[in-house]
Design a protein that fits this description.
The structure holds two protein chains of two kinds. By secondary structure, chain A is mostly beta strands. Helix content of chain A is 0%, strand content 53%. The chains are: A mainly beta, B mainly beta. Chains A and B meet through β4, β5 and β9 of A and β5 and β10 of B.
Chain lengths: 113, 112
């Protein structure tokens, strides 16, 4: 089975801290994605990557950056955490191509105080 | 800008009943429409998907109905069971890359 592993299930940080959320997939997928999930807003795409060292902005990239130095690892970075970034963060991966299934991790619940 | 609108936000159905969740989209370039199911504490998982060249797709108790002219699609869960209680997300994408735009989600509860 495909496994997408997110490094932390729960994370509590202070306003202004730099935060790293890590995601690793074990199926050699080309595509990786970061979404945030908020009640009533669904899942919104922050950043995605179709290849190593490649990144593209999603619908809500402000306040975030990403890094993909290895194919299996995709990191989300909050340069200076703010309270409005308190959310559930979901990482996903898929094969390259069209209409491929996304495999999601279990999520990281980030609270910024 | 909400490109995929989903309703209702929550739904309570009796065991054995039919659950219906509706979605509407705006971008006519969308060409792939999946539904994802999410249980508490887990990430979403693909349930069923459809392309716009067919009007219906059925997999077991789950059916997607697709109306291209109305730009709407819906999920029907027949003989709903308590184990179907979860949050359901519709989504849409276009072209290569699997970049999905999700709806806002429907929390389904199936009561005994």
């Amino acid at each position: 089975d495909v496994k997408v592993t997110q490094s932390s299930r729960y994370l509590v940080k202070r306003t202004g801290e730099k935060v790293f959320l890590e995601c690793v997939q074990d199926m050699d997928h080309e595509n990786m994605f970061w979404y945030r999930q908020d009640p009533g807003l669904g899942l919104r795409l922050i950043y995605f990557s179709y290849d190593v060292k490649m990144k593209e902005k999603g619908d809500i990239p402000e306040g975030y950056s990403v890094s993909r130095e290895k194919k299996e690892r995709f990191s989300l970075i909050l340069e200076s955490a703010s309270t409005n970034q308190t959310s559930m963060y979901l990482c996903a991966s898929s094969h390259g191509g069209t209409n491929e299934k996304l495999f999601f991790g279990s999520g990281t619940q980030l609270s910024v105080l | 800008q909400q490109q995929v609108k989903q309703s209702p936000q929550s739904l309570i159905v009796q065991k054995g009943g039919i659950s219906i969740i509706n979605c509407a989209y705006e971008n006519t370039a969308f060409d792939y429409f999946p539904w994802y199911q999410q249980f508490p504490g887990k990430g979403p998982a693909l349930l069923i998907a459809i392309r716009p060249d067919v009007s219906e797709k059925k997999e077991g108790r789950f059916t997607i109905s697709f109306n291209k002219s109305a730009k709407q699609f819906s999920l029907h869960i027949m003989d709903s069971q308590p184990g179907d209680s979860a949050t359901y997300f519709c989504a849409a994408s276009k072209g290569r890359g699997n970049k999905l735009t999700f709806g806002t989600g429907t929390q389904l509860k199936v009561e005994l």
